[in-house]
Amino acid sequence: MRVLIVKLSSLGDVVHAMPAVQDIRRARPDAVIDWVVEQGFAPLVQRCEGVARVIPCELRRWRKSALSRQTRHEWRAFREALQHEAYDAVIDLQGLTKSALVAHTARLAPGGKRYALANQTEGSGYEAPTRWVADVAVRVETRIHAVDRSRQLCARALGYTPGPAEHFGLLARGAAGSAAGQEVALVHGTSRDDKLWPEAHWVALGRRLASAGFALGLPHGSEAERARSERLAAALGAAARVWPRLDLGLLADRLAGCAGVVGVDSGLSHVATALDRPHVQVYNFDTAWRTGPVGRPRQVAVYAAPTPAVDAVWQAWQTVHGAAGAGVGGAQAL
Question: Where are the beta strands (DSSP E) in 118-182?
């Protein structure tokens, strides 16, 4: 049985789709699973256990120059790669027009079907073409965690019941560059400024971690994040170092070698959860029920408005890292 997963972006969404792949593997051991994803996320999907072939695309870039010769050439090459195999099931986990286009372009085996979401879920994007293209549109609960949404869609498409525990199957390839498991990564960058944690809070937390004997790693994915990493490193001194710019695969490898991660609501924080690292995820909004770690003893989301206090995050870190101390002060742990 050949299955094609269509989940193109963004980073957190790609990570949240990985448990669905593991469900398919358990329920259908005969399944060969391919995955279409944006090029930038391909190195991470290549580390997802059970994915036979990663088919990269660059729809974001192609849209900016749709009529150029280069775009037409690259689209033809992508279409040929996509249609190299015929699929018994094409499952659109994205629910957007762009993913519907990819699902429509994929080639079906005789008797094969395209599956997609029939409805929008709370807090997620959704566009009608996804169900127009589908042979079978699957309705799921409207208030559902992003991981469970993908797991339920795949289960109902292929006719099995998912197990109670989520497993991401994200496999690191060593931990080059880590400080022998004594480095804590401070994931301060996110796609929205209103999700940021104050820099003064990062400095205060970093000093506590350094006093406890940890080295501090500062990853970054943009120029603004690089500049913030350098400011934090200057304030934190010898314990902190700015990581080099890495692709997502190498970044996941490096996170896997860390003692743990503290991060804001971002894709990289979701990678830390998928790697099962001790992790505290900082939320300025009460949305961890939808995207954050829930019911996972080694990862916890800490929420407070307008933003969690340093004491709350520190106490949560002590809990997930197995140290003394419990509770999260006046914040809410999920």
Answer: 136-138
The pTM of this model reads 0.93
| Beta carbons of 58 and 39 less than 8 angstroms apart | yes
Q: 224: exposed, middle or buried (C-beta count within 10 Å: 0-12, 13-18, 19+)?
A: exposed
Q: Please identify which residue in the block is written with the tokens 């003692």.
A: 259
Outline where the chain has alpha helix (H): 11-27, 42-45, 59-64, 69-82, 97-105, 129-133, 146-158, 199-211, 223-236, 248-256, 267-274, 288-291, 310-320
Query: What does the alpha-carbon distance between residue 314 and residue 321 come to, in Å, rounded to a whole number?
Result: 10
pLDDT tens per residue across span 131-190: 999 999 999 999 999 999 999 999 999 999 998 889 999 999 865 444 446 999 999 999
C-alpha span between 1 and 45 (Å, rounded): 20
**Angle between helix 223-236 and 199-211 (nearest 10):** 50
- Residues 105, 140: Cα–Cα separation, whole Å: 25
Give the model confidence (pLDDT) of 23-60 as tens digits: 999 999 999 999 999 999 999 999 999 999 999 999 98
